[in-house]
Structures are given as C-alpha cells and as structure tokens.
Automatic annotation (TrEMBL):
SUPFAM superfamilies documented for this protein: Nudix, Winged helix' DNA-binding domain
Pfam families on file: WHD_NrtR
NrtR DNA-binding winged helix domain mapped to chain residues: 197-257
Superkingdom in the source lineage: Bacteria
Lineage of origin: Bacteria, Pseudomonadati, Bacteroidota, Saprospiria, Saprospirales
UniProt protein name: NrtR DNA-binding winged helix domain-containing protein
InterPro entries: NUDIX_hydrolase-like_dom_sf (IPR015797), WH-like_DNA-bd_sf (IPR036388), WH_DNA-bd_sf (IPR036390), WHD_NrtR (IPR054105)
Spans through the membrane: none
Source organism per UniProt: Neolewinella xylanilytica
Length: 264
C-alpha cells in the first residue's frame, strides 16, 4: 500500500497527487490492492518490484487504494496500467490478506517525510496522512504481461522499479513475499485451464518457446512430442502461415493466441 500509483507525478491540474492522499480523500480507507506483476524473459519468470525511497533498500509490491467510484478490479487495472504503461494484460485475484497487526507504520515516517520534502509540501500534511498507517486489508491480484511491451514507471516514493527474477527476490515489506509465493502457486494451478502461458509470450511464438516457458514455470522438463499434443489439445492456438526462414533446417511454425486479442 506504500507505493500507491495515485501518488505518482502530478495530476493534469498540476497539483501533486500526494495531496489526494490527505485524509484519505475519495478512497475506501483501510482497504488496498497489492499487485504481483509477472513477466517472462530469457527463460526466467520475473516480478516487477519497486525500491522505496527511504535512504536504504526497502522493497515492496506495486500497490494502491480503491477510489469510491470504482470497482475493485478496475482499481487493480488502473494501478497496474500506471506502473507498466500497458492495458493489455491478464488479471486475476488470488488472495486477501488481513492479519490483525497488518500495518506499514514502521516505514511510514521515513517514506512520507522524504516525499513531502521533495514535493515541497507543508510537513503538517504528515498528520493528515496518518490514515495510511492504520491496519489495512489488502486484496492480492496477479497480472501476466508481455514483458517486452512494459515501461516500468516509478512513483515519487520510489528510487527504482525493476524486474526481479522470482528465484532471486529480496526481502519485501510486510507480507509481500508471501503474496508473491501465493500468486505463483495460483498461476501454476491455473496455467492450463486459463491458457496463461500465452499472456506471457509475444504476439507470435513457436511451440519450442511455449515449452521453454512451461519448463520455467513448473521447473521440470517436458517431453517434446507429448508436450506439443498437450498444447494443441487445449484448442486455443491458431497456426500462422508465416514461418521463420533463412535456416537450413526445417523452420518451425509460428502460433498466436486469438483470445488474448479479443478474438474467438
């Protein structure tokens, strides 16, 4: 919840967005959304992780609040779009987190104090932001994206936002590591039924690329012949007439996933 996309840059009116957080204006208080944004590159699954600006490494998931006039999924889509620059992604709610002591109070003073100073706001605003330090219930969403189309975007409370391999994650704040683990477990459970692989790949891909992705997600090898039948039996792909050319060996077919583009 500390990395709210509503605190990013400035509104069209020129007023700092951090002002909108004062007294929880227009937000459903004590309810937030945390997003596990998953991409795939060079046979590695990666998660988008901001580093908060507190004078030392402090990592968190992209997060945000829900406006009074929007639905929960709409809020999640807004938060993810603000952090990635894209609107084409697969989104799924995977969990709710709300232990009795769940608060970001240990990080608040360092984080907000720095943001106020950079934006030239009255330090008294800190008192009006105390609602952010209360106990929060967070709804977890995961998003599957084509990593090559994403432009990671910082907010004023970040020093950086970078893709991080899921096997090399740092310690994140609160229960965010647990959230990532839960999101990945859910993705594996839904991978076939949801045809999830095809949201992580480019618009066109080979069967070999699909196989490599499956092996990365499930961390085990798949037999080539059986795998191709398994994927084609999903009845979700369209073979593209264009093939790779220029190689001496037989060129592989390219495939596409029509559902991703709203085609059925």
């Amino acid at each position: 919840m500390l990395t709210d996309s509503t605190a990013a840059n400035t509104e069209t009116s020129g007023q700092p967005r951090l002002e909108r957080l004062r007294q929880g204006q227009n937000f459903i208080q004590q309810l937030s959304i945390d997003c596990v944004i998953v991409g795939y590159e060079a046979n590695k699954l990666k998660v988008l992780v901001p580093n908060l600006d507190v004078g030392e490494d402090l990592f968190a998931l992209p997060s945000g609040f829900i406006r009074q006039e929007e639905g929960i999924e709409g809020a999640a889509r807004r938060i993810i779009a603000d952090r990635t620059g894209i609107t084409d992604f697969y989104l799924h709610q995977f969990g709710v987190y709300g232990t009795a002591g769940r608060t970001n109070r240990p990080y608040f003073d360092r984080l907000i104090g720095g943001a106020l100073e950079r934006q030239g706001l009255d330090p008294g605003v800190t008192d009006e932001l105390q609602w952010i330090t209360r106990r929060f219930v967070s709804i977890g969403y995961y998003a599957l994206v084509d990593l090559t189309t994403v432009s990671p975007t910082k907010t004023p409370v970040d020093t950086a936002i970078e893709w991080t391999e899921v096997n090399a994650l740092p310690t994140l704040i609160m229960d965010h590591n647990e959230m990532i683990a839960d999101a990945l477990a859910t993705i594996r459970l839904q991978f076939d039924e949801g045809r999830l692989a095809f949201y992580l790949l480019p618009a066109q891909f080979t069967m070999k690329e699909v196989k490599k992705l499956y092996e990365t997600v499930f961390q085990r090898p798949f037999a080539r012949n059986n795998f191709q039948k398994k994927i084609l039996d999903l009845d979700a792909l369209e073979r593209v007439s264009k093939k790779f050319t220029g190689a001496s060996h037989r060129a592989p077919y390219l495939y596409r996933f029509p559902r991703r583009w709203g085609e059925y």
